[in-house]
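Structure representation:
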Amino acid sequence: TLLSEVVEPLQQGRSVIRHIDYQGVHSIRELLPANHVHVIFLDAGSWESLLERIQARTPLKTEELERRHQSFLIEQGFAASADYIVSNQAGELDKAKNEVLSIISEILES
């Protein structure tokens, strides 16, 4: 799917905007020139803050929370390699969305 969903549209001269985890970003960066890949990392803040948001949505088992915590730690380590970091704090979704849209517009105009 990486090839058909990302590489092929780019070869056709189209822009591609996708939600991709850190592993997918690594794969894409190996396939494409650096000037064709722009990574925006959404920073949810501290684990404690994110945990509150998760638990407010639905109760989860301890095992699932631990799995999410481990994913959080890995993704936070990946943040430094992103081209842009956008803060996505609780209650500020519109602010984060507008910042992402502004970054995308800037990239597409360049």
